[in-house]
Write a structure and sequence with these properties.
38% strand; 2 helices; mainly beta; four-stranded mixed beta sheet; disordered C terminus
Amino acid sequence: NNEPSKKLFLLFSSGLYTITITDNSFVEDNDGSYLLNNTENLTGPKNRILTATEISIKGYEFDNTNVNNKVSGLCLSDGSLVLELYYKPTVYNVNYVLNNGEVEGENVSTYTILSPNITLINPTKQFSTFIGWTCKEISTPQTTMVIETGSVGNKEFIANWEEYSYSVIFDGNGATAGTMSNLTNIKYSEIKKRPLWKKIKK
């Protein structure tokens, strides 16, 4: 026919416009339940896989064994995708430097941010008085040391001691000649290094 030719154009949507979805982070509580700690809005292209990124939460670490995790998903046009990451308390180590002391019982070797206040059991040591614990944060010896709820980080506690001091009084037992000065504030370790009979022979 004599009608002018017509061209037909088909337009396709690429589906790459940006969708906003929700990313929730949950932390474990003492009773094993989970509390919402953080919510973020993520954006991504429609019909593409979007993956959540782990965040830093004080005292917690991502629990990759939790079956409730939804780390990634398909970004739908209705924005209905919700990603969820679950975090467990980080377990911190506790080390003790007793300096030849002994603890009757057992102090904790680990703790978490959720642990109740932990009061350390003080050690004992023969011929010495315990004057307190010190650690990285506390340089003055403390006879009562507590790891408080909410604390984080590995800990090392050092036992500090003061040796017993002795006084030695010499009695000539009737001797009429010679003298020997009395000894005061002699530490136990000094007595072990220099037995008393050596002092008397001088």
